[in-house]
Design goal:
heterodimer; A: 287 residues; 11 helices; B: 319 residues
Amino acid sequence: MTWFEKLMPSRITTERKSRSVPEGIWIKCPECGAQLYRAELERNLFVCPKCDHHMRLSARSRLEVFLDQDSGREIAERLAPQDPLKFKDSKRYRDRVTQAQKETGENDALVAMTGLLKGQPVVASAFEFRFMGGSMGSVVGEKFARAAAYSRDNRMPLVNFSASGGARMQEALFSLLQMAKTSAVLATLSEARVPFVSVLTDPTTGGVSASLGMLGDVNIAEPKALIGFAGPRVIQQTVRETLPEGFQRSEFLLEHGAIDMIVDRRRMRDEIAALLAKLMKRPAPDA
Amino acid sequence: MDLKFLDFEQPIAELEAKIDELRFVGDDSEINISDEIKRLKAKSEELTRSIFSSLTAWQVAQLARHPLRPYTLDYLEAISPDFQELHGDRMYADDPAIVGGIGRIDGRPVMFVGQQKGRDTKSRVRRNYGMPRPEGYRKALRLMQMAERFRIPIVTLIDTPGAYPGLDAEERGQSEAIARNLFEMARLRTPIVSVVIGEGGSGGALAIGVADRLLMLEYSVYSVISPEGCASILWKSVEKAELAAEAMGITAGRLQELGLVDELLKEPLGGAHRDPRAAAETLQSALQLSLRDFEVLDVAELLRRRQARLLSFGRFRES
């Protein structure tokens, strides 16, 4: 921090932190700084009309803008976290959970729904990044497993939007094993020949990227999303050199063959609906 | 012998130093030295027993990373003398941080896969401190799929600080390599037994650890993140690694209580490195028993049980 930054009130210095869309009538684009009218931004699915920056979305708004209007019905919404290890760092895990629940209105970091995508039945789930960094613990794993099992048993394709820092440390090995659990259920989906589309949004790293995130029959990323196994800070500490521009961004992943396509949020419904219709051998959905 | 005693073993180290000194003095002094050595030996053993009866999680983590601890190839040499190493992922490279190949247990062929650390500076660098890159995981998968093809059971030995967090590893799809192994191991049509022999470091460990049965050596650890990593994120200080190790419950004993580990394998007094031969024998007989258990299952039942086991992981409430 320079002396000048130290002098500035903290509200100004934290403004650049990219968060989910804040409240208020006017919203400033964290990328280009443009002042945007909230209603207009909402119509644009929280993509900046000036610079196309894709702002982070809450899990619920994500599913709302993805599924056909009012078609979503929530799955396993009653699952809530336990604290098997009575985990405590500077704060108790219990308290962190309660706080996150208050802030987000969610029980945990994944929301799952059945619904329609351009008239086709699908199961869709989305990570809530504001809930402890979208971290995957037992509830996320179980909810994902149930969503996937529902998708498999009813032959409805599965679409997941990830936004997560990885496994939830406070649930220790229980969270690590959610990687095995979610991957195992996806293996059964695959054997049943029900498609899974994984949409990677900003940011998706660690245990979520290294399990369900990379296991789509089709992997899609939103533009310029940070996607990787290790976080950039950890890599920097390991290799002790500055990371190249655009490293671990969607475009980098596409170039290295890790994902199938980059899709603008405003085209997401169209692209996925068209893909799923082909994989399910259905007629093309309406434009 | 230099046993490279850890901090908490210092009282033992002092006794052992005394014993060595006496040995050096030899038989030409007046007191009966061999009796004195015997007495000190017994005392040292008692002290070791007492110190090792109440180890903290952090101390166990130190033992799991002990520089003399037996590594994958040490165990393979001891339990399967006719082990033949197979190399390469057929796509990019051969990753020395993961070794694999075919050996035998009980006279029956077994596919072994494990992370491999180096013993001296040069081999540590070559083995990348046991941190695999994507090609390592892809080699592991290739060998495991070959085992499936020939109906050979799989044994994996886990010993890694974690998957390598480097630029090249990211470029070649570290996430995908790990995820693919989790996905494929869940449905491999042959028995898989995994043993944590040292460090079970996060996704990098799990990527060869999806199994029908999970065993852990007594002084090995298994965790979602290293104690240091957890401490630096949640406590904002690496100094708090000891607290983090305790909070995460990373030891075999604790994980068995939590129902996440099926079997704990007792180590020789003072840890596997004090008597590698005995540790290898324990491992060998545990593997024999496990493999016999799974041998009698038909594949459909094996897979049904594995799926149920994997889906059972987790603790949650439902209101």
